[in-house]
Design brief:
Length: 25
């Protein structure tokens, strides 16, 4: 959620984190 505040950069960060989390799971 915090990524939304940062804007595009935050969205990209959240997307990367989500991808890593999916790989970990």
């Amino acid at each position: 959620m915090r990524g939304i505040v940062f804007g595009g950069e935050g969205a990209g960060w959240l997307y990367t984190v989500s991808s890593q989390v999916r790989k970990s799971l």
